[in-house]
């Protein structure tokens, strides 16, 4: 019966596409940050307005059918690292592993992405690190990425100490630069696997 109910809901939702929605957070916005740019008012990338029939079908199937996604799975303890500060992030980069960073806000698609990230983080642990940034909590870090649609993924690797020309204001502060690649593959374990192969990231998969 649950499977039949899921299929009925799935086909009904295709007949009446979801309305456009904006994800927001109750977190107070910094006055110096324009409201249209703040992650607390960012548009969720999963909004369905103008999407093709196929896009709506795939998105709805992923979000409603456990038979498609393969969940729930016993993945053990979470391998996703929560972002807490830029200092912590730099230290993580200097462990020498590629770091997949998910920049997220609270919205429907983020719930699906969280499940994908949990499985991927467990599959590629410890060779590839996965970090989740809650952008309403850390708007400054997220705004540096200059994105307007959330959630999105980027891959950071090969950190280097950045050149610091001119007067050094605080010698205790060290700036770093890292190579960053956008993640534009399918957001699934398969997509991550193909992406890592393309860019030559070494890994082995946990059983």
TrEMBL record:
Coiled coil: none
Signal peptide extent: 1-20
Superkingdom assignment: Eukaryota
InterPro entries cross-referenced by the UniProt entry: Thioredoxin-like_sf
Keywords for the protein's UniProt record, in alphabetical order: Signal
Presence of keyword Iron-sulfur: no
Ribonucleoprotein keyword on record: no
PANTHER family: THIOREDOXIN SUPERFAMILY PROTEIN
Designated name of the protein: Thioredoxin domain-containing protein
Species: Aegilops tauschii subsp. strangulata
UniProt lineage: Eukaryota, Viridiplantae, Streptophyta, Embryophyta, Tracheophyta
């Amino acid at each position: 019966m649950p499977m039949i109910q899921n299929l009925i809901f799935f086909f009904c939702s295709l007949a009446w596409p979801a309305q456009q929605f904006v994800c927001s957070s109750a977190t107070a916005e910094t006055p110096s940050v324009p409201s249209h740019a703040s992650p607390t008012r960012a548009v969720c990338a999963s909004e369905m307005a103008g999407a093709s029939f196929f896009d709506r079908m795939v998105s709805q199937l992923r979000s409603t059918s456990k038979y498609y996604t393969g969940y729930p799975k016993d993945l053990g303890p979470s391998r996703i690292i929560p972002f807490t500060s830029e200092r912590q992030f730099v230290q993580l980069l200097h462990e020498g592993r590629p770091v997949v960073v998910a920049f997220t806000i609270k919205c429907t698609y983020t719930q699906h992405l969280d499940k994908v990230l949990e499985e991927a983080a467990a599959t590629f642990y410890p060779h590839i690190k996965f970090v989740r940034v809650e952008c309403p909590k850390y708007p400054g870090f997220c705004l540096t990425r200059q994105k307007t649609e959330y959630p999105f993924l980027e891959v950071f690797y090969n950190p280097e100490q950045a050149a610091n020309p001119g007067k050094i204001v605080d010698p205790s502060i060290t700036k770093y630069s890292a190579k960053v690649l956008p993640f534009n593959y399918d957001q699934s374990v398969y997509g991550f696997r193909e992406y890592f192969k393309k860019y030559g990231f070494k890994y082995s998969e946990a059983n």
